[in-house]
Structure formats: C-alpha cells, structure tokens
Amino acid sequence: MKPLDNVVIVGAGPTGLVLALWLTAQGVKARGPGMQSRALAVQARTLELYRQLGLAEAVVAAGHRNAALNLWTSGTKRATLRFANAGADLTPYPYVLIYPQDRHERLLIARLEDMGVAVERETECLGFEDRGDHVEVQLRLPGGREQRCAAAYVVGCDGARSIVRHQMGTGFPGATYGKFFYVADVQAHGPAACGDIQIALDDADFVAWLAYDDQGRGRLIGVVDDDGADRADTLSFHDVGHRAIAHIGIEVDKVHWFSTYRVHHRVTDRYRTGRAFLAGDAAHVHSPAGGQGMNTGIGDAINLAWKLAAVLRQGAPVALLDSYQAERRAFALRLVETTDRLFQFITAEGRFADFVRTRIAPVVAPLAYGIDDVREYLFRLLSQTLISYRGGPISEGQAGAVQGGDRLPWVHTDDNHAPLCAIAWQVHVYGRARPDLAAWCEAQGMALHRFDFGAAHAAAGLQRDAAYLLRPDSYVGCAVADGSPLRLEAYLDRCIRRSEGQQ
C-alpha cells in the first residue's frame, strides 16, 4: 500500500478545526466529521498561535476585549484587576477576548473552506481499526450510508464522550462536582453591563458576567443552588438565583439562550495509542474557572499538528509523536489541579468559606495584584503564556533565563514574534550571529532572524548573541548560550531527523 499522508479528525469544535487548519497549512490533508462546543474566552496565547495562521486580527476584530476583572461582594465592587497593567510587556494581546462560540467556529470553518477543506457536519464516526501501517475509520454519511476511510492517523477531538477514546481503551479518571452550573446568553443593562468581566463572590452564590460588547450583550455563568439541583434539567433562567446577578449591578432584559450542566474534572491516561490520538475535551475536562478549556484544546491541536506534519511530510521519526503526550498531558494535569482549587474556592459553603471569599479575598486580591511579580504571574497563568515544556523529551539547553521548552518571550520594541507567522523551524539571535551559525542556517534552508540586543531583550530573559532554535509552534526547542550551531545540529539529529534504516 502507498503510504498515506492524510489525517481524519473526529469533531469539528475549535480544537478539531484548528488542528485541520494547521495541518492544511503544512500540506497535510485533513478530513473531519463534526460536532459542536460552547467555548467562549480566547486567551492571549491562543491569539499568538492564531497569528501564525493569519487569524488573530480577524478574531480580535470580531470579538470583544475584556480589559479588566472586577470582584464584587454584597453589591459593592471591591477590586479591579486590569490585564493591561500585567500583560502589556508580555504579549501583543493583554486582555481576555470574548468571542461567542458559534461565531468563532464559523470564522474557522470559513478559513478552512478558503483553503479547500470542507467540514462534514452530518457525518458520524462509528469507530476505527488500527491496521499497523494505517487506520481505517468507519463513517456514517448523511442519509445513513456507511463508508470506510483509510488514513495515516485519526485524532479524536470529539468531546468528553469521545468514541475515539472509547475505542482506544484509555481511561478517563477523575470525578464530577456535586453542583450544577448554568449558562445564559442575555441582553442586560446596569452599571456593570459593560466591557469588563464581573465576578460576584457572595456566599457561594457565584456568578460571572462576560461581556460580548459594550451595549449589554453578554454571558452569565452561575451556580444552581441546592434547591434547584435535583431538577436542573428542567430549570429555566427564572428558576436560578438572581441575588448575585443583582449584586453586580446587572438587570437582565432578555434571555437568548439558557442551559445547565455538570462540571467534571478528568484527564485521560493516554493521549496516544498507535495511530490514534486525543485532543481537547476528549483528553481532559475541568471546571470553567479561568476560561481555559477551549484554549487548552487549541494548544493540544497545534502541538500535535506540527509533529504530524513533520512525520508525514518531512521525514521526522515516528517517535517524535510520543512527545505530544509528554508535553500536553503534564500541562493538563496541572491545569485541572489549578482550576479545581479555584472552583472549590468559589463554590465552598460554610461561614469560614464565606468570610474568606467576601472579606479576605477582595482585600488581598488588589494588594497582591499591586506586586509586579504576582501580577505578572497571574496574567501569565490566565493567558496561558506561562505554559512551558521544560524538561520535556524535545527541549534542550538554556541561554539567559530562557530554557528549551519555553514560549519565546515577546519583545514589544521590535515585535520578535512577527517572523513566527512562517510555520517552520527558525533561529533567532539577539545581538551578533556567529558566521558559522549563519552558514549552518543557510545550509539547512532555515531562516535566521537577528535582532539588535537592547534593554527590553534583557528584561525578557534573552541572552545577547545566544542562538534560539524555535519549533514551528513558537516554543524554544534548543537554546545555545554561545551561539554555536553544533548543539543545534545534534539536537535536530536526536529529535527531528530520521535515522538511516528507520521506517
């Protein structure tokens, strides 16, 4: 059989759509039976990765920038945390972008269609078989006819009830929280129905407001009280507690959409089995605290996409694909632990929990946010610019404060992220590039980008005259303090290049 170079993507939420976009941009054919998601917040790191596809500008223009987070208790705004104060020197996108899921997906689908890829919305994956040198995916087409599709790999982006994960036989350990959440898209008015994020911390009667615009359109997310939990499936917006909504100065005029759901926290045992992979909610689910879910799935997709393309199109060793689980599962475990703690904090019951939430947190939060290091850390955590693969199987070296596996720091004085729009390996030097490094890059057909070193580069942790070999997803693969190409050559031989005789 002729080797296959196509990938079947099961699930066409943002994770599956972005995976298809990145694969297509790198010359890999993608096919995708679809499903939907309900994600909302787009974090800075996702926008940086979208920039590589030429998507960031369109997404930012279509969404709404929530520039600050306000904490409320007992009807009074107690603290304001402004994202620009923390992130202006860290990323071109120092805010949380709110972009309704249906509009987000339509934009991604339109971009795929422009690239000649159609999402098969009414096509269902029934299962797959791993044949060793390829997979056969069983599909049910519109009208009920079934079809078998041969592919090099299959990727399950098909949500928490993933058929791909079920067929892989991997576990999905974790638990389900006792409380129900509700979500409602509404038209509202009031002093807080503006362009900021509003959070009420009243006696476990949690509610958050995420603005779609400055004219009172937005999403409310809240906890269903215990009296309503037993009939959560039949509740309407009128049945949920409205005290916390009133306490953040919002009055609802019209409800466009309402739903209730359980919150889970789970991470799969394995992200890969043979030629099958998991990404997004098929691999990990957690509380909505922090707006991390969709962004984590998109991060999965991009991490996997460049590695699949390297194997299928550039002759990289199949072992490179093992680094996908090593990098992304470790992050998912940390994320679930973090969001679990935050969720427990905002929903805990009892007098002591109420006291901490309503009296201590509103005082401590602005004081802590006033400390530069704390403010920067919290923004990095929320924006996912903190994600690092240090110590991972394809991360090497250190130059300055930057180690192999780190996201390339953004330097606003010269926008050193601009060259990353080329989804390819490249070398950055901040200062003087050695002649042998320049010759090596030319021989490899690899772009070398040199920037004049200045105070902003030093503040970002970059080292003068060092060489930073960047992966296609803009993380540092290898950092070499003296700028010598010998370490870069050895790194590529170890991680990326197929040895003689390898299949």
From TrEMBL:
GO terms for molecular function: FAD binding; oxidoreductase activity, acting on paired donors, with incorporation or reduction of molecular oxygen, NAD(P)H as one donor, and incorporation of one atom of oxygen. Its cofactor is FAD. InterPro entries: FAD-bd, FAD/NAD-bd_sf, RIFMO-like. It holds the Pfam family FAD_binding_3. Keywords: FAD, Flavoprotein, Monooxygenase, Oxidoreductase. SUPFAM superfamilies: FAD/NAD(P)-binding domain. It comes from the Bacteria. The keyword Flavoprotein applies. Residues 6-338 form the FAD-binding domain. Signal peptide: none annotated. This is FAD-dependent monooxygenase. It comes from Comamonas antarctica.
